[in-house]
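Technical annex B. To support the medicinal chemistry partners, we prepared a structural model of the target in complex with S-adenosylmethionine, based solely on the information shown next.
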Amino acid sequence: MSSENAIAEYWSAAAPAFDEEPDHGLRDARTRRAWERRLADWMPPRPAVDVLDVGCGTGSLTVLLAGAGHRVTGVDLAPGMVAAARAKIAAAGLSAAFVVGDAAAPPVGVRRFDVVLSRHLLWTLPDPQAALRGWLARLRPGGRLVLIEGRWRQPADAGAVGAGVAAPYAGEHRLPWQGGVTARELTSAVAPLVSEVRVESLSEDGELWGGEVDDERYALLALA
Ligand SMILES: C[S@@+](CC[C@H](N)C(=O)[O-])C[C@H]1O[C@@H](n2cnc3c(N)ncnc32)[C@H](O)[C@@H]1O
């Protein structure tokens, strides 16, 4: 099986139970509102913008963004995730476009976006730096990256190297950011490519996660 198929199969199998985590399914109204507030802060100050949600998973953030009036396209490698996302947006009475494809090279043709957003995807990618460059190339002038990332299951003050969360399909591919990426390391990767970078810590906001956390979680906003 190709490594891309193995990744898609792993995540499709994870799709049915994925939303059971409070920050995945956003089933609790407080958790959902906490994400709605953050997303509103991170979007450009215009009523409706074009957002590409890469590695959209079951579409929880896609739904919030569509609910806020934005035009959202979700991309995910796992057909099971995309099926769940399509069902979720329909159940919400909203619309968004979903495509099955590699987030590192989103199959969106020549379309350009005001925002490329990704949550908890970079750690799974064999070449996250190439993905970052690809995302920037899909932004309109003045566009922005919104990257919600972290380094999970180890104290926020742990060094850059640690066990973290393992991707079981890693196989022969080294995943440079397996276990997550610190804000410092992601800033180093993104800053040379953009005009401005801002990092917002999310570790202290337990409402986002369904409870307190003690590892590093953050949003990195980059203006192209
Ligand atoms: C941890 S989940 C995050 C899902 C969603 N962004 C969220 O925050 O709820 C990672 C997602 O990335 C997807 N994924 C992994 N590698 C991918 C790739 N190369 N291209 C597109 N999606 C990928 C998986 O299928 C999965 O849906």
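Notes passed to the chemistry partners:
Residues 7, 11, 24, 55-57, 60, 75-78, 81, 102-104, 119-121, 124-125 surround S-adenosylmethionine (CB under 6 Å).
Confidence is low (pLDDT under 50) at residues 160-164.
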